[in-house]
Amino acid sequence: MTDFACPCLSGRHYQHCCQPLHDGLPAQNAESLMRSRYCAFALGKTDYLLETLAPAMRQSDDREQLQQTIEQTQWLGLQVLESSFDGNDEATVEFVAWYQDTPLGQLHERSRFCKIEQRWYYLDGVMLKPIKPERNSLCFCGSGQKFKRCHGR
């Protein structure tokens, strides 16, 4: 069944958001690839994560590392903070991915992407300082509640 809200929190159903990319449609831009990769982590799609990693960056133990991350992490939400395209074949996306931990965990990263033969690939990322959500802002999980009443307790 694919009629559920997409984990990337785009506001669309999975079948109309990240599923077409997971099924082989090329991402139109780096942000859509980043969102689909987050969704792949949340849904356990290791093959997709390997396929969308830039060929030059692949390592022999990638599959094991990805599977371990997928098994050990419960992803809660995604916030895209900034996306930029250099006009050629490179782009960056800054995002925060929230996950269950005690207290909450977050991956705040500025990721680099490259386009090779009309397909976008993840290159690498730079870890950034954690951000603190405003108490009165909407929660990152997409619940529609204020952070302080949802995951900010």
Automatic annotation (TrEMBL):
A Pfam match is: YchJ_M-like
Q: Where is the YchJ-like middle NTF2-like domain positioned along the sequence?
A: 29-125
Top-level taxon: Bacteria
Give the InterPro entries listed for this entry: NTF2-like_dom_sf (IPR032710), SEC_C_motif (IPR004027), YchJ-like (IPR023006), YchJ-like_M (IPR048469)
Task: Name the family.
Answer: Belongs to the UPF0225 family.
Q: What is this protein called?
A: UPF0225 protein MPL1_11288
Annotated source species: Methylophaga lonarensis MPL
